[in-house]
Input
Amino acid sequence: MPHSLDDVTRSIHSLWPLSGASDWDASGLVSGDPASPIESILLAVDAVSDTVDEAIEANADLLLSHHPLLLRGVTSIAEDRYKGALLSRLIRANCALLAAHTNADVVTDGVSDILASKIGLQDALPIEPGAASGTGIGRVGRLTEPTTVGQLARLVADLLPATASGIRVAGDYGARVETVALCGGAGDSLLAHPAVTGADAYITADLRHHPASEAREQVKITGSGPALLDVSHWASEWIWLDTAATQLREALPGVCVSVSELRTDPWDFVVMQ
Output
């Protein structure tokens, strides 16, 4: 007997409890009949036209995205607006949509935890601990062997899928790195956190001019602080999907679970000056 969407939703929320989601988030079921059977799931970071096309062409019953399509309130889902158009196409194709966002960021084997593991951090702990043991935003830990800022940037570049923006770095190429803090996705809100300022390097995405500049200037005043590695938001979260797919296959025997290989990073190319 196939699993229902209601069964699948409960399994997803068991793996990534909604209690761990941030107050501003919109994780959970977006569309779909809870009684409908689910035999195939496609995982993607973003619910965009390309991944919606992929899900429909693969006859997936559920598109599980990391980023919520309806993160902020909308007053219309008319089909001349992209969110309405995507939802309408999914509904017509009997493909449900569910988002696992910040609730999947904070858990063990979640977005930041997997990034820390792949980089090789030892004894990695949350930067901001959550209510449950081992959960929380970001991770900070030590490398098994010291490296340099430049070598760490090369490691991260080799680890993440390629994007037009690559890896931007603020810091001395040859500076020693032992302790690394990181946050998958956008993490400049953590720049002033003691766990970040006490690290040798901080890896995150979407670093804006003013927060990054202020962090650099603070290093000049105090003589200590992390080098900054600014990576693609999409790439920093995409590497979690394989682990998520494995967990879902174990939780939902008989359901085909696949990961989208499509790059949904919004940037297509850069022009170097």
